[in-house]
Amino acid sequence: MRPSRTAAVHATLGAVSVVMLVPFYWVLKTSLTGENIFQYPPALLPRVMHPFYYVDVWYYIPFVRYVINSVIVSVIVVAANLVCNALAAYALTLRFRGKRAIVALLLSCMLIPFQATIIPAYLITKELHLLNSHLGLALPLCSTIVCIFVFKASFDAVPRSLIDAARIDGLAEWRIIRHVMLPLSTSAIATTVILSFIWSWNSFLWPLIVIRNPEMQTLPLGLSTFLSYMENTTGALYAFCIMVLAPGVALFLLEQRRFIDGLTSGATKG
What pLDDT was estimated at residue 269? Predict the structure, then answer.
């Protein structure tokens, strides 16, 4: 690629990145200034900044309790996804009768939105006596089809000769997954961790249905509670959003290379 063309591509990508980052900058600026977001012309640079809105979020509601609940649920979801999705993906790499039908069934299930299955999910959770509990909050997200196929694409890239050699050495199937497949699938692990964490961290509809005790609320539910306490919510609301978004953004920035590799592992060969 010619240098002039490369510079044009980089300039275009840079401009697109700036446009996409404008909403994040605006949320951060408003959380520090509390300015009216509907004023015209809008102020591009902050005038007077102070952290008082973050202090309001911290003290007006039991923010720490909401964070603890969200962390517990996210840890359960991430751990369950790593175990369940890795086992399911390894099974799909084996040869057995009906494999194509199972893969087609899983792909077709991805077309069904969660809202369409929320009633049976609620009834199952109720029968298991998991309503108003951390495990009940995490149950619907303990395994995701997208992450199963992310693991499958990574496992398919592992040479079959390596797996056969492990079986000759007497390793059981679960030990092959633990000591052979997973160490060679760090990109799939990072992708699963990021996706499952963000999905559980930002979940609102399911906790809204299964939670009755205010002390069991997660951060998205805590936002609605916070709005009931504050009258002028512009700066405080945006401060709350920043505090909720920060862990997910930080996790993505730390593992973005492996995340991209995990999503594109099945797109190329060699």
Answer: 46
C-alpha span between 198 and 186 (Å, rounded): 18
8 A C-beta contact, residue 86 and residue 177: yes
User: Is residue 84 classed as helix, strand or coil in its secondary structure?
Assistant: helix
Q: How distant, in Å, are the alpha carbons of 51, 74, 218, 250, 259 from that of 67?
A: 19, 10, 7, 16, 25
Contact 202, 252 (CB under 8 A): no
Q: Are 155 and 93 in contact (CB under 8 A)?
A: yes
CB atoms under 10 Å from CB of 84, counted, come to: 16
| Nearest C-alpha neighbor of 221 from the set 63, 113, 32 | 63
Q: Which of 102-106, 176-180, 221-225 has the lowest mean pLDDT?
A: 221-225
Residue of 195, 219, 180, 81 lying closest to 139 (CA atoms): 81
Instruction: Name the DSSP class of 40.
Output: S
Domains, the chain, in order of start with CATH, read 49-263 (1.10.3720.10)
What is the CA 72 to chain-centroid distance, rounded? 14
| Contact present, 196 and 144 (Cβ < 8 Å) | yes
Per-residue pLDDT, 17: 85
Residue 96 CB coordination number (10 Å): 8
Alpha-carbon span 200 to 218, nearest angstrom: 10
The model scores a pTM over 0.70: yes
| pLDDT-wise least confident of 28-42, 93-107, 213-227 | 28-42
SS3 category, 106? helix
pLDDT of 162: 87
Give yes or no for a cis peptide into 41 (omega within 30° of 0): yes
Among 215, 221, 213, 228, smallest CA distance to 244 is for 221
Residues 6 or more apart whose CB falls under 8 angstroms from that of 12 comprise none
